[in-house]
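User: Hi! Is it possible to get a structure for several chains at once, not just one? Here's what I have:
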Amino acid sequence: MADGAEYAAPRAGAAASYEIPSSGTTVDGALLVGLLMAFALIGVAISLGESVRSFVDYPSVLIVLLGSFAVTMVSFSIGEVFSVVPLLLRTMFPPVRDTRRACERALSLAEIARRNGVLALDHVLPQLAREVFLQRAIAMAVDGTPPEKIESVLVTEIEATSERMTRSANVLRRAAEVAPAMGLIGTLIGLVQMLANLKDPNAIGPAMAVALLTTFYGAVLAYMVLAPVAAKVDRNAADERQIQQIYMVAASSIARQENPRQLETLLNTVLPPSQRLDYYS
Amino acid sequence: MADGAEYAAPRAGAAASYEIPSSGTTVDGALLVGLLMAFALIGVAISLGESVRSFVDYPSVLIVLLGSFAVTMVSFSIGEVFSVVPLLLRTMFPPVRDTRRACERALSLAEIARRNGVLALDHVLPQLAREVFLQRAIAMAVDGTPPEKIESVLVTEIEATSERMTRSANVLRRAAEVAPAMGLIGTLIGLVQMLANLKDPNAIGPAMAVALLTTFYGAVLAYMVLAPVAAKVDRNAADERQIQQIYMVAASSIARQENPRQLETLLNTVLPPSQRLDYYS
Amino acid sequence: MADGAEYAAPRAGAAASYEIPSSGTTVDGALLVGLLMAFALIGVAISLGESVRSFVDYPSVLIVLLGSFAVTMVSFSIGEVFSVVPLLLRTMFPPVRDTRRACERALSLAEIARRNGVLALDHVLPQLAREVFLQRAIAMAVDGTPPEKIESVLVTEIEATSERMTRSANVLRRAAEVAPAMGLIGTLIGLVQMLANLKDPNAIGPAMAVALLTTFYGAVLAYMVLAPVAAKVDRNAADERQIQQIYMVAASSIARQENPRQLETLLNTVLPPSQRLDYYS
Amino acid sequence: MADGAEYAAPRAGAAASYEIPSSGTTVDGALLVGLLMAFALIGVAISLGESVRSFVDYPSVLIVLLGSFAVTMVSFSIGEVFSVVPLLLRTMFPPVRDTRRACERALSLAEIARRNGVLALDHVLPQLAREVFLQRAIAMAVDGTPPEKIESVLVTEIEATSERMTRSANVLRRAAEVAPAMGLIGTLIGLVQMLANLKDPNAIGPAMAVALLTTFYGAVLAYMVLAPVAAKVDRNAADERQIQQIYMVAASSIARQENPRQLETLLNTVLPPSQRLDYYS
Amino acid sequence: MADGAEYAAPRAGAAASYEIPSSGTTVDGALLVGLLMAFALIGVAISLGESVRSFVDYPSVLIVLLGSFAVTMVSFSIGEVFSVVPLLLRTMFPPVRDTRRACERALSLAEIARRNGVLALDHVLPQLAREVFLQRAIAMAVDGTPPEKIESVLVTEIEATSERMTRSANVLRRAAEVAPAMGLIGTLIGLVQMLANLKDPNAIGPAMAVALLTTFYGAVLAYMVLAPVAAKVDRNAADERQIQQIYMVAASSIARQENPRQLETLLNTVLPPSQRLDYYS
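Assistant: Yes, the chains can be modeled jointly so their relative placement is included. Here is the combined structure:
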């Protein structure tokens, strides 16, 4: 990574480069490959049988898909339901969230502040446009906000961000609970219809097959898509939260005009042993 | 929204308008549309079969509906059970709960206090008749109650309100647990009756269809109505709680005679980035 | 209610009556009506079928009822198991627990203390014989125990009372978990017996009906009786806890010799808006 | 109980007897009677059928018993698995745990300390050999350890004891989760074997009976033995914890050289109303 | 154990040996024996039947194994999924985690510090290469870091280590939830295929056998492998955490230059009675 070069500076004692490694978006390979693989397996398993067509029943698809959507909508506001779309996009194409790089970025800013004074960070702020939270945090330090105030404001913001993500994730989680229930309701409808008309014994098999389809759709929707994606959203929220906490610690340390060496020690306690920073120690 | 005009005042430095944007009630579209859609889907699925009439069985309806009501009643006081009716009305036609507008309202009051003194808020109190909590909070500030006292009184009140809403929601949640159990009990009764009289093989099908109906009714009642509505009530309670906290923070800030600018910073930490206030910054 | 008259006194400024509204026991209508209604529905549903007698099987009743009792007993001491009897009586015929009246009672005592001094409460203590907790709390204030001490002693007592009630409720809750398990075990016994002797196809139906009966009994016992009553016990414990907290706050306020007006404000934060006290404000 | 005589002393103002009521072990009647009764019921239910022998299948017993043991062992160390044996013995034959007698014992020691000085307790220490925790606690007070130190050391020890008991109980709890799973796996093996060889329709019944046996064994093992005993272990741990807390409070009170009267008040908040001590009040 | 000899020194008052008992890796016998035994039982149960081959169906294996892997991957990053491999190795061949030996090691270091001064520990640091956490902790004490700082840094590190282990264990736990769901989905596919083609009644049995296989594989994978191993990982993490806390307490005690006797008292509160240290007391 080209970042190494920039960060060699503090350790070598040279003037800190003002380039802050920018963060972009990436593709969540694990999520997309996992989903494709799972659906491919199901597809192959179905196509190995003789009756691929018996797995397609549009009314059943409607009951499970639309029904789960409708029942999920009951529990939320329309805004929250549609907040799932950007959430899903952000989950498939997440911002680069690399704890170590966040630490490097934080340390690099602390080094600038130590060498050129806190006000020098004012020039760096535009480079942080992609990291709105870090930008706000550093701006507060530059403005001379007292460190306790910075911490209390940022902690509230971290909580609020985290709660907003949880709410969107709740929509997915609730949908994952609703889908198997809709599948069960669909199957009960099918069973009652079949049992009420037991005239032709030959029709029992296919009728039960159709009745089971909603259970099948509900299980696939809930256990293969909704629940795993909701778990991923939670995991990402935890990552984001950790990075925001790193930035808060850094902004507070800069406002306190501490030695960046102390910040390094603090950040290293968060990083796994193999990724620890060692610019100063 | 016409509110924009009033609130332009503080930023432009002009005299603050004394009109506080009033809040009314609205219709919870997501809830009503979601329920209608879900039931329409079930209705269509049933009517696609040949035996619509086999889905109607009055004793089964009674066991599930009345039975769930009776068993739920056991766990509560009669007052609590009937508190569900106003709760449902309030859930279908909720008060306008808009976090940003609550922040604007709070900030507008803080601006009035800064310009004309805290006592000037006395004239505004009648306009807050629809927001009883805010009215009480501001009245305390006007009365000169010390800010710590305001906070401690209001925190207890927020907790108590929240607990009262939780209790009513618990009735729905318990009913959502009871309904499938009553459905199971009904189905067991049907199965025992059918199995004890296996004389006519042709009667098995219809008898099992009827036995399954209570399970079907229980599932529809619990998973399509009670559980989703209970989740909505919880979500609304969280919203209400947040708005009450905003009002508490505002009343405390006014009593402290802080600069509204500080209040704005504080409230912005709660608002999502896209909705942040910027009258002062 | 006749109480209104007594309590009009403080507001009108007249001498406080020394009569403290006494609390007695009442009948829990919701619990008894709910249980009766649920069992009546089950009874009607059974009697609509042709085979009422096939719902009675004494060995099955024994396995579920006695078996649930035995297995529940394993997890507790004999004392705890039998503490369920007074608990059930106290749940069916609970003491009058009215938060507002508890507040009035507390306020009335505070008013007496303000007018005639804390020692005057000594004469009132015998009237509180039915409210042992309140009596103890006030006795401590009369004895001149410092308010912090009163609070710490009473908080420990509230916790201990609450834990004792939880333990008794746990017996019911555990029995509600055990009953369906015993039902399942009974049904498995029945199924194995039936399957091992598949000689007469005509006997299959009735044999399965009998096998299902334990599941039916277990479900009725757990979901219609034990679980709802356990939930009611929890609800009552929460009520009791709240009233004990009100009395603790009052005793502490009296020991602090605060103005009853302050106590009123404090108690009002706990009461729902429609029931608030307004003797002083 | 003969204890009453000894303890009458403090109240009557006479010299405290140095005999501390010793505690021994007892038999947990509720546990043993409960288990025997439950198994007797199952035995009777089985013997009422014609096919007692069809309930015995050694491979099924092995899969469920040995299998549950093996899978449970995976989650723990061998030491933890075998710590279940002394735990079970201690659960069947528990030490006498009587909260009131523990309070009396504590008060009696406090009375000795008040009359004859803390050092006099040195002579009593050997009598406490059966209550190792109390002995250690009093020894610390005799050694002149400061009360805060006594509390902090004992709190850590209470936590550690409690965690060790929880770990052993976890073995039982995990086994209670594993047993029904092993039952399900055994039944699936039986079903697959039966379905793959559907030649002789007469063999279906007995084969299914055998397949269901593992589910039956798993249910009996988990719901009638393991889960109830694990719940009992938890309950006993809570009792033990409470008594250790009583001893800690007493040792700390003795080290503080407080009046035993204060200790009595404190201990009474923990005891149920009917069992309260009244030597001083 | 040879350790006894070294540690006899402090008690006898002789010069402390500088050899710190090294810790290596071991084999988790309980885990390996448990898994082998469980699979052997299943194998025997299958081979007792006539149709061993009907338990092998490659498409079913793929759906459950690969499908569970794919769906689990959706919820994590690729790095996290593969962190399971070293986690499993570390679980099968764990480092020696012996609480008592950790205490001895800590006490031995404290003794060296008391006799030869904290700086003497500098020579011992290389011997601690296998206990990275202890090495870091002692290095901080040698560097003269203030004890509060040592504690705060190490607490953060313990939390972070613990969270990293939890995340890896979460992969196993999620997989244990996914596997039965994939088994259910596979069985639903098989049932729909079978029911849609009910031409040959003789094929029903074998087709259902195959359909049940995915449920069987899912149950074995989840309940016999993934869930027990995840529970073991949690148990090991708790052990590791405790040992890290012991080392933290020791490093802090050394930095405070406390008497090792005090450290012994503190560590003994954590050890079970039978394993307590008694070098000083």
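Chain C has one domain: 57-275. Residues 57-275 of chain C form one domain.

User: Great, thank you!
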